[in-house]
Prior knowledge:
25% of the residues lie in helices and 3% in strands.
Amino acid sequence: MNNWTEDEISLLLSLNKDGLSATEMSAVIETKSRNAIIGKLHRMHVPMTNSSGGRRVSHLNGHKKERPKKQLRLNRKIKVQSVNYKQLPLENIDVSRTDGKTLIELEHNHCRWPFGETDIYFCGRQILEGTPYCYTHYDVSRRKPDQWQ
């Protein structure tokens, strides 16, 4: 970590007052990088100025460039393969099972339904396309609480 000397700080302030860019200042103060110069000016609460002594403006005519706004996707719909879940046999869901997969053993096609309280492991069966669960746990995740077993 290079400390700034009094001479370097006074030279930095005079170069900034003259309107040099951070790259140009780093060429004059050879021991400091462009980012070091920007950081020092920022920590000293000194705005970078242009050659006329005013504050440097990064956009033309003082108008900000219009950026397209990102739209939030609040209602993301999951595409699930067309399967009639009511016709599929539901496997018995054993919450005490210990033959699941650990977090490290999970692969992209394994069911992420968690089991356990202190030792957490996951179902690990084949998932339905577009969901993180196998068909049994997908069905359970869509049930109302009064329909749970």
